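Quick one before lunch.
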Amino acid sequence: MRVAVFGANGGIGRELLPRLAEADHEPIGVVRDESQFDAVRERGGEPRLGDLEGAFESALEGVDAVVFTAGSGGDTDWGKTLLIDLWGARRTVDACVERGVDRYVMISAFGASEPLGDPEEMRPYWVAKRCADDFLEQSPLEATILRPTALTDDEGTGRIAATFEHREAGEHAIPRADVAATVVACLETDEAVGETIRLFGGDTPIESAIDPDG
Ligand SMILES: NC(=O)c1ccc[n+]([C@@H]2O[C@H](COP(=O)([O-])OP(=O)(O)OC[C@H]3O[C@@H](n4cnc5c(N)ncnc54)[C@H](OP(=O)(O)O)[C@@H]3O)[C@@H](O)[C@H]2O)c1
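Model of the NAP complex:
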């Protein structure tokens, strides 16, 4: 599949591009600055320009699937959270519908399951993520929503704990590398289509956590 990754230069994005290439997909790294093109190429991706606060639609040319792992980050104000995590994500869903890109994997956040949870200062971020998730869920796209808990830059383990929505939650932080590997596993199976999956550090090999019968 030709997979366009929004946030290709971010923590999960950098882990994801080489994993997609190794799995025989064709990753397209969507970045907002040409100075990031070489980094995308070095990770096996085709770089394309796209700004979630501006124009990005041409980056979807010839694409089969989109992964959204962009974000405004923790150092910006809530205005940027609205513009990128919510409105930017929403616009990518609309663009996929318009262009016939059917498959979409959203990197959401654990707190989006209950946006009024604690700590209180995280609530606006979780609301933004939840609204983007709900918009995707109500779209005609074949969507998978991944809701990882706190991310780390630890080495990937190849193992996670995945609870499908409304089931018992795990507790452990999860390496970005394992979230990236889970995205690839989701693109390999229909079991993940239409699902919202919460992700934690855990002991289950990623492929069987996503598709026990696969
Ligand atoms: N941090 C956590 O603990 C945590 C927990 C759960 C879920 N998440 C979610 O997981 C995802 C990935 O997190 P991460 O920490 O790996 O990401 P990250 O390192 O913060 O990277 C975010 C990426 O988004 C890009 N971006 C920001 N604004 C953009 C714009 N206007 N147009 C295009 N791209 C833009 C950034 O581009 P530049 O490189 O140009 O800055 C960056 O590459 C995010 O959706 C986040 O909300 C994070």
